[in-house]
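Weekly sync, protein design subgroup
Attendees: M.S., D.O., the rotation student, P.L. (late)

Item 1: inverse folding check
M.S. brought a backbone from last month's batch and wanted to see whether the design step gives back something sensible before we order anything. D.O. pointed out we never logged the input encoding, so this time it goes straight into the notes. Structure tokens as presented (281 positions):
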């Protein structure tokens, strides 16, 4: 079984990619999607000129666009979602391969990260993400995907994620939600597979309007429609306590996201793809 690390990077972030590469190992490769915001293409760092590294070029911005570019060109059996500031160990990557080999029914696996900046508490047992324990949430670079389960069926919703115009978070939660809607087996495993010592978007940019809109939009798109007009008030209290985000500021922009989705419902399914490659309405 082969594993491919799908690395999304932007402009000068390419210089960080070499730091996550491990010594060449049979069955493990790296696919880098490199976005250029100004259309200019600088020289590829010499450290990336390896047989096990493939670099794709893409103009513009949008993290979900970048991740989808990787998904379209991926070739390995298992695909690991990677940010350019992630770090790995050989035994962690082998654990991912072992997990998919021993659980052939699993389509998407969520693992654990180590982080000094944003330590997370994880359950000590495996469970399906359709029945997650209270307080658990997924982070994009904890996800590994069986390629044949997703290609032609599912992708990241490009209306969500860092660099998207309106909703700059929530893309990983929405990917998982849509996978469950398609009947995929999505499961958490209490296994550490990555180190990431920087704050994630929803922490470092918690008070930005586009991030708050993304939180609200996900309430509609991610299956919380019965409570989507109530939850922003609860989440706003949590954000105020954890990150000092002004309460009514948070409520306002989360409700903006909710109501935008109510009037543009097709956006919610933009990540689900038919087998012929056409997006569903």
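Designed sequence read out in the meeting:
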């Amino acid at each position: 079984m082969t594993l491919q690390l799908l690395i999304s990077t932007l402009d000068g972030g390419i210089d960080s990619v070499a730091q996550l590469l491990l010594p060449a190992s049979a069955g493990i490769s790296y696919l880098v999607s490199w976005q250029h915001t100004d259309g200019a293409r600088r020289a590829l760092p010499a450290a990336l000129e390896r047989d096990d590294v493939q670099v794709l070029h893409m103009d513009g911005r949008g993290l979900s666009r970048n991740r989808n570019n990787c998904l379209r060109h991926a070739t390995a059996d298992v695909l690991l979602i990677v940010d350019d500031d992630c770090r790995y160990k050989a035994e962690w990557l082998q654990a991912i391969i072992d997990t998919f080999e021993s659980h052939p029914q699993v389509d998407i696996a969520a693992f654990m990260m180590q982080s000094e900046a944003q330590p997370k508490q994880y359950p000590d047992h495996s469970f399906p993400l359709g029945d997650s324990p209270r307080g658990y949430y997924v982070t994009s670079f904890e996800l590994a995907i069986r390629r044949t389960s997703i290609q032609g069926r599912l992708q990241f919703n490009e209306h969500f994620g860092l660099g998207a115009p309106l909703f700059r978070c929530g893309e990983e939660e929405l990917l998982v939600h849509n996978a469950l809607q398609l009947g995929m087996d999505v499961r958490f495993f209490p296994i550490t597979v990555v180190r990431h010592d920087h704050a994630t978007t929803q922490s470092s940019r918690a008070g930005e309007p586009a991030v708050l809109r993304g939180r609200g939009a996900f309430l509609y798109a991610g299956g919380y429609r019965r409570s989507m007009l109530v939850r922003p008030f609860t989440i706003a209290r949590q954000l105020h306590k954890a990150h000092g985000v002004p309460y009514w500021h948070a409520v306002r922009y989360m409700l903006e996201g909710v109501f935008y989705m109510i009037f543009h419902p097709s956006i919610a399914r933009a990540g689900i793809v038919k087998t012929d490659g056409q997006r569903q309405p």
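Discussion: The chain has a mean pLDDT of 93. The beta strands are 3-10, 28-36, 53-59, 78-83, 108-114, 127-128, 143-146, 186-195.
Action: P.L. to compare against the previous round before Friday.
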